[in-house]
Amino acid sequence: MYLVDVGQDSDGIFTVKSFKPIDWSSYGGIWHPCAGSLPPWGSHLGSEEYEPDARTFTEASNWTHYYMTTKYDDKVRDYMKYFGLYENDLAAEGSWSLVTSKFHPYLYGYLSEVTVDVDGEYTVYKRFATGRKSIELGYVMPDRKTTFVTDDGTNTLFTAFIADQVDDLSAGHLYCARVTQEGTDTNATTTAFEIDWIPMGHASDKDDELLSKAKTTSFSDLFETTEVNSDASCLIGFTSTNAGAYGQECLKLKNGMEKLASRFETRRYGAYLGCTTEFSKMEGITFSENQNLLYMTISDVRYGMENNQNKGLDDDQFDVGGSNDIKLDYNKADLPLHVQCGCVYGLSLKVNTTALGQYTPARLLPLRCGIPSHADADNACSVDDIASPDNAAFVEDHHALVIGEDTDHHQNDVVWLYNLHTLDTAVGDLVNGMQGATVANALRQVSDPLMNCP
């Protein structure tokens, strides 16, 4: 992550005045920074995507065991370079104790906030109280307390954080969403869901209490585990979950670990409480104050969002042991291509004082979905519609939703301007991801985030 000082002249031309890296060493570095947003108080609210699995890390006996168990996932291996450890170092006998002394999984997977003062000096915070998962984006609502946090990846969780104080994400209550599919429709382009919110408790990272705990807590401090029975059940006293890319697990929360589990194992604990952990590639989220609607992008409706299938083929690995709340058809092109083009969802809000208060999402419904096509080898999704929608921004003065793609299914990734008056789309500039600017600039300039996420 970098701090860039940018000037703009009277003709609107931008000039980079300075460019310097931001120091996150007090938090063990920054992990896979993804999309960011601008809260009402003017800080940068970033994110850490694809958090490292603490269970695999805890259960490993050495580096080779860990690396093989993660199916040769290179993210932790590559991150070790931050601590000066390279492949030869990791392969050396006795390296595991060195790795575990430097790398602590519960330090990574949070909203990352940067404030900058008038002199250009910055302060960094990882917002432990808002929960840990594969965060794509955190979006703060106009009340300056409610923050919605998306979770990118496989079998993911939608959460909301209600801060104790305005303009301060250091303490508050966390909630996770449980969805109920309406009716018997299974078409991803038409099926809606009711949303309930389950409380996950209160936490505060003031006085660096959670920072300190993140350095010393292991997965085994939070949960007991046991093997899944041959009939896909768990032993009495254990709860069956299917969250993240971990598949079915049998978990038992240890006494007094509710707070730490809610913040360090937010997705697993959400599944443990009965929340829905079946979303796939949950990306951006934005809000229209005039409409009182949230908009969320799902770049690929697959896996846990299907009904015991894997891209249209029978396979229960993403649903077995879970609640199977979402049962959608995989809207694919003809086999064997297996392409799904993603959807943009709307979330209707209501006032619910027993849940999130003023901004409580009550219903999730598809607004626009891409259309699979075999038109040409470079465009498996129709070029006349969206493919793999990533981030989005609402432009109130134009009553339009700006949708940025991050896709392999269009030859060129594009930004779409979706007119909510006419329900028409228009193609904008080429881009992989985007964040809306002010109305004055949004329709003539669309800027990339500092880092685009896969």
Outline the structure in words.
The chain is mainly beta. The protein is built from 10 helices and 25 strands. Strands 6-7-8-9-10-19-18-15-14 form a 9-stranded antiparallel β-sheet. Strands 22-23-24-25 form a 4-stranded antiparallel β-sheet, with no helix packed on it. The protein has a 3-stranded antiparallel β-sheet with strand order 3-4-5, with no helix packed on it. Helix 8 (258-264) packs across helix 9 (266-273). The protein is globular, with a radius of gyration of 22 Å. Mean pLDDT is 90; it is low at 429-454.
Task: Please give the alpha-carbon distance between the first and last residues.
Answer: 17 Å
Strand order of the largest sheet: 6-7-8-9-10-19-18-15-14
Task: Using the alpha-carbon principal axes, give the shape.
Answer: globular
Sheet-strand content, in percent, reads 35-45%
How many runs of DSSP E, i.e. beta strands?
25
Contiguous runs where pLDDT drops below 50 for at least 5 residues: 429-454
